[in-house]
Amino acid sequence: MRNSWCYAAVLAVGMFIVGCGMQPGTTLVKYSKGSGTTTTTAPHDAMYALYSTDDATPIVKYPLKAGDKIGFTENADGTVTAVAGTNQKDIQTSMLAHTYYWKEQK
Description:
Elements lengths: L1 H17 L7 E7 L5 E4 L4 E7 L7 E5 L4 E6 L5 E5 L2 E5 L7 E6 L2
């Protein structure tokens, strides 16, 4: 039984370390709880997908044009909004997943 717990702990740590590498695409911008507002611009016309470290499938996907704003905004009330062009998605930072990624899809 003790070996099972040890194996489970090692597996959980390994999955946490891999994080955004599990999802397809190139990470463009990342948000971790408390990191503040982080935005950039889309480098290409492409589909961009929002993931948390716990997700294998995207939370949302949006087509963007090169130069569109993409990233995360910390609001005055403590909430966080994922931004992609004119699209906005509130994200939960008080739950287990504290890290979110915008990835450019190929």
